[in-house]
Amino acid sequence: MARRGGPSSSWMRPDIRKAVYYRDGYRCVYCGKGVEHGVKLTLDHVRARYRGGNNKPENSITCCIGCNSAKQDMTMSSWFRFLREKGVNTDGLRARIRRLTRTPLDKQAPANLFHEVRRK
Question: Is residue 3 situated within a structural domain?
Fold first, then answer.
C-alpha cells in the first residue's frame, strides 16, 4: 500500500496535528528524540489503516521520520520485537502509547510552540 505524503501530509488537519505533537511532547514516542535533536517529526498510525485503524488522533502518535520509515507497516507486536532485537528497552512503551492516545488533545495548544522548540 502506498504511503501518502510525509511530515506535511494532509490526512490530519494542521491544528489537530500540532495538538498531537504537543500531547506527545514534540518527541518521537519510540526513540525519544525530539526536534531539539534535529529530527523531523511526523505522525504514525498506532494501528495501520489497512489493518482497520483510522486517522483519528486516538490512533496517532508522534514519530520521527527514521522510526516511521523503519516501522513501515509492521504491527505493534512486530515493531516492538524489532526494537528489542536492536537493543531498545520496550518495557512500558505499550502502556505509554495507550496513555498518550487516551489523553484528550489540548486544541488550544500554542500554535507557535512548535517553532519555538525547533529553534532551541
Answer: no
The span from the CA of 107 to the CA of 84, in Å, is: 34
Residue 106 has a pLDDT of 85
pTM for the model? 0.79
Angle at CA of residue 108, ends 107 and 112, nearest 5°: 110
- Helix 76-85 × helix 93-102 angle, to 10°: 140
Q: Is residue 7 part of a domain?
A: no
Rounded distance between C-alpha atoms, residue 18 and residue 80, angstroms: 26
Number of domains in the chain: 1
Amino acid at 71: K
The CATH number that applies at residue 105 is 1.10.30
Within a domain: 2: no
| pLDDT tens per residue, range 51-68 | 888 999 999 999 999 999
Q: What is the mean pLDDT of the chain?
A: 84
Kindly give, in sequence order, each residue whose CB lies less than 8 Å from that of residue 98, ignoring residues fewer than 6 positions away. Answer: none
Domain membership flag for residue 1: no
